[in-house]
Every structure is written in structure tokens, then in C-alpha cells.
Amino acid sequence: MSAPVPTHCPYCALQCGMHLVPLPGGGAEVAARDFPTNRGGLCRKGWTSAALLTSPERLTTPLVREGGDRRRPLVPASWDEALERVVAGIRRAQAHKGPDGVAVFGGGGLTNEKAYQLGKFARVALGTSQVDYNGRFCMSSAAAAGTRAFGVDRGLPFPLEDLAAAEAVLLVGSNAADTMPPFLQHLAAQRERGTLVVVDPRATPTAQAAALHLQPVPGTDLALALGMLHVAVVDGLVDAAYVAERTTGWDEVRRLVLGGYWPERVERLTGVPAPDLRRAVHLLAGARTAMVLTARGAEQHSKGTDTVSAFVDLALALGLPGRPGSGYGCLTGQGNGQGGREHGQKADQLPGYRRLDDPAARAHVAAVWGVEPASLPGPGRSAYELLDALGTPEGPSVLLVHASNVVVSAPDARRVEQRLDALDLLVVTDLVLSETARRADVVLPTTQWAEEDGTMTNLEGRVLRRRRALDPPPGVRSELEVLAELAARLGAHRFSADPRRVFDELRRASAGGPADYAGITWERVEAGDGVFWPCPDEDHPGTPRLFLDRFATPDGRARFVPVHHRPVAEDRDAEHPLYLTTGRVLGHYQSGAQTRRVPELAAADPEAFVELHPDLALRLDVQEGEEVRVVGRRGAAVGRARVTPTVRPDTVFMPFHWGGAGRANLLTNPALDPVSRMPEFKVCAVRLERVGAH
Ligand code: SF4
């Protein structure tokens, strides 16, 4: 048997350490590995992650539409033929519509090198401004709120191990017990001490582990946070010395919360009892060290940025950010959710977290890329706006999708399908025939995580090494090879397919930016448990803890941001009297394109389901296990009823991991946050029907 290769799980942002042991007959076995984020633990997804390497569903040859006709089936093709079709389609679109006739859609699962190369490919090889990625649907609201408060966004500005030093934790909108189970180890002290407070409209396993569970009406977290701030002010819990020394803007926020967010009003808005609200604030403020953590539940709203800002304001008022054992952080979800947003595949950013509209940033990156700054396009459309423009007279007519399954994961999924079908050319690069790949004109098969080298940046801002343990099957290529080959065919020749060379270029491009990787080498990453950015030179130790002395704002102070509660974008009415909220299950990751193909995971969580409260089930005469239809204003989805008191009586819950009729995103609302452009995934209005009754 070959030697175990130390690497990391391919799925979520915890990036648990594991060993891969290559097997003589092909494939590999997973073994646990002690690493600071997982301490030897892995969840079900991690333990079974090697199954996909040898899956019969894996793509090993390019596919194209027979005769180039979309009505005909996908058939195997040579790489040359497939790439020529892509290049011909790109040239056609550019001739008709100019550079923005071609769009690129990336993913938060791509390695740092691929995310970097994808952004560069879009802006240099294609010259298009139309590039964004699925991270826009993930943590963009927290990124926007973090940047406006602290001057820079790093999911957790401290290592996970610091959680042990926090006497109390407020966790908002995270079901980590299901999404990243090994994370729960880091909350052991607070669970034991009875100082874990969870905010979630569902009594998830995470909420059930808390000493106090606040269960608001979906879409009212912002009011809840403002109510907590009100209590902090009125009950004299604000850290006045910290506020005076380390922040600006408090007076306006203080006036705002005193004027409108007293607990009884907040109880009417959120459904959270005023005494519970007070108890939560006193629990946090009474601790010598405390942390406030948010995740998708707070962020995936049309007011997600303001919601996170309100929780950041609370953390600042209590004097937490930048103090050892205390702070605010966002639990990023996707495997490279952090790195994926730093290296330039975002519509408005260049590598190193630089702003695309900053002349100095453009000049720096253009010099690394060997192009004129003026040749770089400006900011493009955000993810949903980009998808919604496809195939329209003003929008792109060609789309290249990498590591994303938008047919399942984007909001208002039927509309997204229609837009994809209106394209002249859809190219999907993936390892399996996902729901999005099925609609493509050209499908390009890729290597998998265990077959390639690279780096990832986990939810702590820790840069890690992904190592190649196996040879890929003949017929597949890495995204870096695909991009280099396409770039060469398009006449752009500065695209390496070697991940190490790409990383070295990324280091130069990020140098001096907010996410500075200049001093991070593969050797340093391999020598220990990764290196935290910013790390400006090779003698620098990296920065596990941000903000200890100053925040990354021009004056070094954190900014309070005044925000107000506002209603959900789509409220209930007589026809749609329930809220729908969406989320995840233990056995599946993101759109499920990978995990639904792992037999053990598919057996444990085989199909879409709908959680409803027993009172609602009684009223509608719904029995456990029967098929129900959730009907909204944009479509309907079907799932099996799970009757449970863990969901509010006014709310139903659907996970979003399945395709077909069980797609929760057939229902979700594409109303966008004005700052982050995040869609309102977490709440829309629906009604419930018994399928058998029709
Ligand atoms: Fe760890 Fe996340 Fe992988 Fe589970 S899915 S093993 S929590 S990295």
C-alpha cells in the first residue's frame, strides 16, 4: 500500500485534515488526521469523500451536442473538437456583442490558483467584465458588512482554537452540527458552561445544544440584533471605554436603537420573547470574553448586509472585536469560500481583495499580468444579475461555468434554466454531469481534488495545501489546463497550467493588498498547519489574529453602521400564508452534485423533504412521509413531509441539495441585497398542498 498523503477534505470551509491512502486497485481510503480545525474528527461527508474518485458517474471524456444542435444528445468528443467549439462560440459572441458577450461563472470550491486564474482569464484572455461566482450566494453579505466595519473581510479574524477562550458565544443562523460537525468541538466549553446562545428559526441540532435558543420569524434577525443593542444600552452593558477608544459612529447607532427597538416591540416583530432577548444580552455582556458569529441564516437575505452590520454593531458595543478570546466572525461555508473571494473571480474585485475600480490596484495587477491597466474591464454584473441577463439583447450569449451547479443552487431556478437555454453556447467544466452540465452545449471533464496540487484558504484565513495523491484517469484535465489551453487558442499566452507557478504569480498580484499572500510559499504552508494572511514577506509569521491593535480602516477604528429593520422582500398573504426557509442536511454539500453520487450519503439522505410543524400538519391533514407540494409565487417544489416541532408553525423548511421537482430554489426569491447583491434565499411566501389530494 502507498504512503498516506496528508491533505484536506474536498467539501466545506472547515477543511478538515485527512490522510488519503491510495489503494492498489485504484481509488483511495480516507484516514483521520489531527489538524487544528477538526482535531482528528471528520463528518460523514469527509469519511466518504474518496468514493467519488472511482464513481461510475464520473466524466472522463468531453461531451458535445451531436451536430452542434441543442435538441440532440450530448455525445463524446475529443478535447480538440470540444475546445474548438468553445473558441468558435466565444469568437462568434465577441464579434456580435463585443467582449461582454462572453461571461464566466466560477465557484467557491475552486483552489486559490484556479480562482485566480479564472478571474485573470476572464479579464485578460476574454476581456470581459462579466465574471462572478457562486460565493455571491454564500457569504457576500458578511464580506460586505465586515469590510465596512473593519476595513477588511476575513471570515474569522482569529483561529478556531480561540473559541475555547470565549466565555460566551452568540451563534446566528448556523446549523454547524449538521453542516460542519467537527466545529462543535470548539464550542464544548460554552455548551458545558451554559453560555451558548443560538439564533435560528428552526430548533436545529445546533440550537438544541444551546443554553438559550432564540427562534425568530424568518427575515427578522436584523430587528433582533437591534433589540439586543437596545438592551445593552438601557441596561448599561456597553463598553464605553472600548467604544471611545476603538470605534466611530456610536452616537447615531445608540440614538437609533434607543428610539425604535425596545424589547417588547422587537418581540412583536420577531416573535422572540422580550425576557429571552434580555437574557441573551446579559449572558454575552456578563462574560469576560465573548464572540458573535454569523452564518448563512443571517446573511442570505435582501437585507443580509445590514443584518450582519447590526450584529457587528452589537459586538462592537460590547467591546469584543480585536480583543483576545473575543470577537466577531463569519462561518464561511464553501471549501474555498474564503480564498475563492480573494483572488479576483468576483465581479468587482482584483486579486488580493483589491477593488477593481481603484486605479492603483488596477495598475499593480495589470503590471503582474503584463497588460495595460486601461485594458482591464470595469466591474461587471453580480451573480444573479449575470444569470438573469444571459441570452438577452444586452446580456452575454456565451457562458463558461466552472465548479458551480446554478440550475440547483441559484434562486428562482426555473428562470435561470430559461436564461441558460437562451444562450448561444453554454460550456460547463465539471467532474460529473450535474443538472447544469446536462443543459450545456459542451461539457469538459475535470480532475478531482485528490488528483491535483494546490492551495485552499479555510474559514480562518489559513492557507492550506491540497495534495495530489492519485493520478487522474486519462481523458480528464484540470481547470488550469483547460484555461491555459483556451487562452492559448484565443491568442493569450501568459496562462500557466502549473499550480505552483500560478500560486507564485498570485502572491505577486496580491502583494500589498488587503489579502496579502506575498510571503506565503508552498514550503511554508507544508511545513506546519498552514499560514494565515496577511503575510507580506517570507520572514513574516502570518497573521492568525487581526485587529488586536488597530482595524484595517484609514484611522484604525472600527465603524458602527446605522441600520434599520425592514420587512422581508416578499411577505405572506392569504394565498401564500407560510414562510419558506431553506438550508442544509448532514449528508449533502451545496447543490448535492457530488454528494448525491456517493452511495452512502445518497442512502442516508435520498430525497427532498419538507419540514412542517405538527399544528400545521393537523390543520392540513398532512401525514408524516406523504408527498407535499410547496407552492410559491415563482413555482412549486415537491418533497416528503417531515412533521416536527423543531420548525415554527408559520414556517416550512426545505433543504436545497436536490434537483428536479425537489428543488427548493424553484421557490426562492431573487430579490437582491443592495450592497452585497445577495438573493433572499432564506425567506419567501408559500402555501402547502397535499400531492395526493389533487
Ligand atoms: Fe470536515 Fe466539512 Fe469535510 Fe465534514 S464536510 S469532513 S466538516 S471539511
Strand numbers in spatial order across the main sheet: 5-4-18-17-16-6-7
Helix content: 25-40%
Which class of the largest domain in CATH terms?
Alpha Beta
Number of domains: 4
Named once each, the bound ligands are: iron/sulfur cluster
How much strand?
Answer: 15-25%
The residue ranges in which pLDDT falls below 50 over 5 or more consecutive positions are none
Question: What is the CATH topology classification name of the largest domain?
Answer: Rossmann fold
Ends apart, CA distance between termini: 58 Å
Radius of gyration: 24 Å
Total number of β-strand segments? 30
Keywords: 4Fe-4S, Iron, Iron-sulfur, Metal-binding
Organism: Vallicoccus soli
Protein name: Nitrite reductase
GO molecular function: 4 iron, 4 sulfur cluster binding; metal ion binding; molybdopterin cofactor binding; NADH dehydrogenase activity
Structure overview:
Keywords: 4Fe-4S, Iron, Iron-sulfur, Metal-binding. Pfam families: Molybdop_Fe4S4 (PF04879), Molybdopterin (PF00384), Molydop_binding (PF01568). One of its GO terms (biological process) is respiratory electron transport chain. GO terms for molecular function: 4 iron, 4 sulfur cluster binding; metal ion binding; molybdopterin cofactor binding; NADH dehydrogenase activity. The chain folds into four domains: 5-54, Single Sheet (N-terminal domain of TfIIb); 63-137 and 339-532, Rossmann fold (3-Layer(aba) Sandwich); 141-331, Dimethylsulfoxide Reductase, domain 2 (3-Layer(aba) Sandwich); 578-693, Beta Barrel (Barwin-like endoglucanases), CATH 2.40.40. It has a seven-stranded mixed beta sheet. It is globular and about 70 Å long. Strand 17, helix 20 (435-438) and strand 18 form a beta-alpha-beta unit. It has 694 residues and is of the alpha/beta class. The chain starts with a strand and ends with a strand. The model has no long low-confidence stretch (mean pLDDT 96). Iron/sulfur cluster (SF4) binds at residues 9, 11-12, 14-16, 38, 42-43, 45-46, 180-182.
